[in-house]
Amino acid sequence: MEGTIERHWEYICNHNKEKTKILGDKNVDSKCEDSENKFDFSVMSYNILSQNLLEDNSHLYRHCRRPVLHWSFRFPNILKEIKHFDADVLCLQEVQEDHYGTEIRPSLESLGYHCEYKIRTGRKPDGCAICFKHSKFSLLSVNPVEFYRPDVPLLDRDNVGLVLLLQPKTASGASPAICVANTHLLYNPRRGDIKLTQLAMLLAEIANVAHQKDGSFCPIVMCGDFNSVPGSPLYSFIKEGKLNYEGLAIGKVSGQEQSSRGQRILSIPIWPPNLGISQNCVYEVQQVPKVEKTDSDLTQTELDKTEVLVTAEKLSSNLQHHFSLSSVYSHYFPDTGIPEVTTCHSRSAITVDYIFYSAEKEDIAGQPGTEVAVAGGLKLLARLSLLTEQDLWTVNGLPNENNSSDHLPLLAKFRLEL
Ligand code: KL2
């Protein structure tokens, strides 16, 4: 029998003009100011390892005792975990369609969740789910995102995302909506070009869903398995809101692997104009030609000229996005500097899963350029601690007797001040 591993809640308290303090596992309200006009909610991000992918990549699970790999063994454990943590929002990846229909959705519904699902395109039968407690939110919109685009040769992979707009159920009824996004980006360590484009597509959808009448954005939570490690160019782009990718090898984007021998460097721009997404990661508004003609009336030369102009504007190797996103986790244990891991099997033990959120302004004070109110702010109250690779090998790695995915669930508690 393998032992269990303890994960504890780290309560985080942001005092004005003071650095983030991590307090022990004491009740948060005894340390932080209690706020009357607030909406607190918790979020879990969890790649539950689809049975189909487990069987396709069985070489990754040779360290496991056979019985712990059966879905009939794994699912009750996963459900127990979800039930135990009781998060208000679940962002699940690798949700296999048949299991979703017959077991996952019915079980979660009986726990009080409303479930939305987006299956991958192509032949792999898994996808992303976002589930939320009826008691906490009502559903404003469901926005699936397919990263496969038959008209863009670069985008030949079947990954997807899902973006929901949720209305908090508050006593006063007055609250902005909250935008929750979930994704599982392409795995292939060598194809950073595709990963970055998939991310840009997700960000464009989030911008569309989260934008408010006054031009600002509502609070955003972006979860998922990004198949990229902390500090990689893709990760830095999410956190910093900008990336100069000039001269960057496509195999270096995600940081999963060290070598970039013989690899192409990213082309400028990374994706073609017909994707309809700008270098700022927003959907491009259809440009109406100034001449009083419809597109079909334009001669080929006129069309070519328009295209040249549009292309010329974009020949810069800078990507940007408009959210200021923080990561719930800091990816290293502060005392030892040892990396946290979110996934662990016989080939790797790394962080690839994240919960990003639009931080309240005081959370990001001191960072240049963050004075503008770019997105509604969330305060991070607490997170469930992660583990080291060494911790996980003491229980035979993942999945094991008690932890039934090759990923750990990530959990955060947020506060929205109203
Ligand atoms: O790393 V993952 O596991 O985020 O948990 O995402 C992908 C990989 C997932 C969906 O494609 O399947 C796993 N080697 C190792 N793992 C792979 C491979 C591979 N060649 N292909 C897919 N996955």
Can you walk through the features of this model?
The chain is α+β, with helices and mostly antiparallel strands and 418 residues long. Helices cover 21% and strands 25% of the residues. It has eight helices and 18 strands. The chain has helices at residues 28-31, 51-56, 71-85, 97-110, 192-210, 233-240, 300-314, 389-393, and strands at 9-13, 21-23, 38-47, 89-96, 113-119, 126-133, 137-146, 160-168, 178-184, 220-225, 242-244, 318-320, 325-327, 343-344, 349-350, 353-358, 379-384, 410-417. The protein has an eight-stranded mixed sheet with strand order 2-1-17-18-3-4-6-5. It has a six-stranded mixed sheet with strand order 7-8-9-10-16-13, covered by helices on one side. It has a two-stranded antiparallel ribbon with strand order 11-12. The model is unreliable at 15-33, 290-312 and 363-374 (pLDDT under 50). The protein binds adenosine-2',3'-vanadate. Adenosine-2',3'-vanadate binds next to loops.
List its salient traits.
single chain; 418 residues; alpha+beta; 8-stranded mixed beta sheet; 8 helices; 21% helix; 25% strand; globular
Low-confidence stretches: 15-33, 290-312, 363-374
| Sheet/helix structural class | alpha+beta
Question: How far is the first residue's CA from the last residue's CA?
Answer: 48 Å
Identify the strand order in the major beta sheet: 2-1-17-18-3-4-6-5
Give the biggest sheet: 8 strands, mixed
Number of strands: 18
